[in-house]
Write a structure and sequence with these properties.
By secondary structure, the chain is mainly α. It is built from six helices and no strands.
Amino acid sequence: MILAVVADALQIVVFPLFVEGAVSPADDILDLTIGAAMVSLLGFHWEFLPSFLAKLVPGVDLVPFWTMAVANVYRKSKRTAINAEEARERHPTLEERKSS
């Protein structure tokens, strides 16, 4: 999450370098690096593609899409973990049944 916030902050604070969107080499390098880091840290998620593509549009790249994408991935992973825990509580394993 910190990496996403830092990347979005860089694109907003260092506005003159990144205002051109897709034609800005600095913006492209930053987005490719952040995209690769996110996939490396969190695995591939579809939420990263719209974030990457939106950063190519001038002006739209000022919206903190990386932060929103990481927050969405985190939210989904928490929901998946909760659902898995609930399923395990409802359906105990064979070993748990033998011990009770």
